[in-house]
Design brief:
Elements: H1 2-11, E1 15-19, H2 45-60, E2 69-71, H3 75-85, E3 90-92, H4 96-101, H5 108-122, E4 132-136, E5 153-158, E6 165-171, H6 173-178
Parallel strand pairs: 1-4, 2-3, 2-4
Antiparallel strand pairs: 1-5, 5-6
Helix pairs in contact: 2-3
Length: 181
């Protein structure tokens, strides 16, 4: 099973939705400023090591990644993506902040709007022979992709715009390491 999954990933066509590496304890400040990392939780040393390892594992497994990698505007997400794939290979997408907002107190209409947009993004097939990587946030239990551990990845197979997507597998960083052998 694992070898056939790896072979499929090497052919491309998947979305790797990854949560950022381990962040420092605490909360993002109420006056959060994306340009000021001091107002946010940031990667711990373990989180930085996880990010580096993530990129190394995907390269060792020879999984082709579509550039740029998409990252949430939080410092912890940008740093995770840059440490894994290189600074020039990362593009910040403000939409991923919306996924973060799902953990707050939102009206159900707002929550549904975010999830509908998320679903439409997950339906977009990556460039031929490539896989798309998104470094963003976990979801509240029972919503979207559900709880994702630090540096965990949900493998998604998009079916095309308006056609939905399948969740293929949930992988921890350790699971990803085991794919190669």
């Amino acid at each position: 099973m694992e070898q056939s999954l790896l072979n499929s990933l090497r052919k491309g066509g998947y979305i790797f939705y990854a949560r950022h590496g381990e962040a420092t304890v605490g909360n993002d400040l109420p006056f959060l400023n994306f340009q000021d990392c001091f107002t946010q939780r940031n990667l711990s040393e373990k989180g930085r090591q996880q990010a580096i390892s993530y990129g190394e594992v995907l390269r060792q497994l020879q999984i082709p990644i579509q550039a740029p990698v998409s990252a949430s505007p939080f410092c912890r997400n940008i740093e995770t993506a840059q440490m894994a794939f290189g600074k020039s290979s990362v593009q910040v997408n403000p939409f991923w902040f919306e996924v973060y907002r799902l953990s707050g107190n939102l009206l159900s209409d707002e929550q549904q709007r975010i999830l509908t947009t998320f679903n439409s993004v997950m339906e977009i097939v990556p460039k031929k022979g490539k896989n798309k990587v998104i470094v963003a946030h976990t979801f509240p239990k029972g919503l979207g992709l559900g709880d994702i551990p630090y540096m965990g990845t949900v493998l998604i197979k998009p079916k095309g715009e308006g056609k939905g997507y399948d969740v293929i597998k949930r992988l921890s960083l350790g699971d990803l390491n085991k794919l190669g052998g």
